[in-house]
């Protein structure tokens, strides 16, 4: 199953900073309607991507006064298959673990889904390959999100945001 996302920007590519966003502000971002999401199909087709499965995703975006979507972000549920542990001497159970995991996902997730894992080079990567997984060309970034998020002018559009102290 191909990865349902648009390709990353080319190296050195910068966001369009033309003043086309007159009349829109950060509060104009909302959940898009099914009709607005459907209007994005040409963007995905042009990039060689697939439309996200609505049963596993939602699409946030901003719509211009004339009704066309000018920005969007797809948030998709993805299955992360880790950690795995097998006691020495029981390695032959690897195939059964993978098969049973795939069978359980197929039973519980309508329409199927992509499964990801983080594998350093070496044994884990070799096992992922044996399980039929493919190496994706993406760099993985993560962020823990929980609770109520209050919208703020966070400076994401500024050239150099203020340093933020890490909190665990």
What does this structure look like?
- The structure is a single chain.
- With 168 residues, the protein is of the alpha+beta class.
- It has two domains: 1-76, no CATH class; 79-130, no CATH class.
- Helices cover 20% and strands 13% of the residues.
- It is built from four helices and five strands.
- The protein has helices spanning 34-38, 41-46, 94-108, 123-130, and strands at 29-31, 57-63, 69-76, 79-80, 115-116.
- Strands 1-2-3 form a three-stranded antiparallel beta sheet, with no helix packed on it. It has a two-stranded parallel ribbon with strand order 4-5.
- Strand 4, helix 3 (94-108) and strand 5 (115-116) form a beta-alpha-beta unit.
- The radius of gyration is 20 Å and the shape is elongated.
Task: Please describe the topology of this protein.
Elements: E1 29-31, H1 34-38, H2 41-46, E2 57-63, E3 69-76, E4 79-80, H3 94-108, E5 115-116, H4 123-130
Parallel strand pairs: 4-5
Antiparallel strand pairs: 1-2, 2-3
Features:
single chain; 168 residues; alpha+beta; 2 domains; three-stranded antiparallel β-sheet; two-stranded parallel sheet; 4 helices; 5 strands; disordered C terminus
- From the spread of the alpha carbons, the general shape counts as elongated
The number of domains: 2
* Biggest sheet record: 3 strands, antiparallel
Order of helices and strands: EHHEEEHEH
Estimated helix fraction: 10-25%
Work out the radius of gyration: 20 Å
Instruction: Note poorly predicted spans.
Output: 1-5, 158-168
Distance between the termini: 35 Å
Overall pLDDT: 79
Our estimate of the beta-strand percent is 5-15%
Strand order across the largest sheet: 1-2-3
How many β-strand runs?
5
Helix/strand/pairing class, anyone?
alpha+beta
């Amino acid at each position: 199953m191909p990865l349902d996302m648009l390709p990353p920007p080319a190296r050195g590519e910068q966001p369009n900073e033309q003043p086309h966003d007159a009349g829109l502000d950060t509060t104009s971002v909302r959940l898009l309607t099914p009709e607005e999401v459907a209007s994005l199909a040409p963007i995905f087709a042009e990039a060689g991507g697939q439309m996200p499965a609505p049963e596993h995703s939602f699409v946030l975006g901003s719509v211009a006064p004339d009704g066309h979507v000018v920005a969007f972000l797809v948030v998709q549920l993805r299955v992360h298959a880790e950690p795995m542990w097998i006691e020495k001497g029981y390695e032959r159970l690897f195939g059964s673990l993978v098969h049973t995991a795939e069978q359980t996902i197929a039973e519980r997730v309508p329409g199927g889904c992509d499964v990801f894992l983080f594998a350093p080079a070496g044994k884990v990567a070799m096992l992922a390959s044996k399980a039929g997984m493919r190496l994706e060309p993406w760099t993985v970034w993560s962020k823990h999100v929980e609770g109520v998020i209050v919208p703020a002018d966070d400076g994401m559009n500024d050239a150099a945001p203020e340093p933020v102290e890490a909190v665990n």
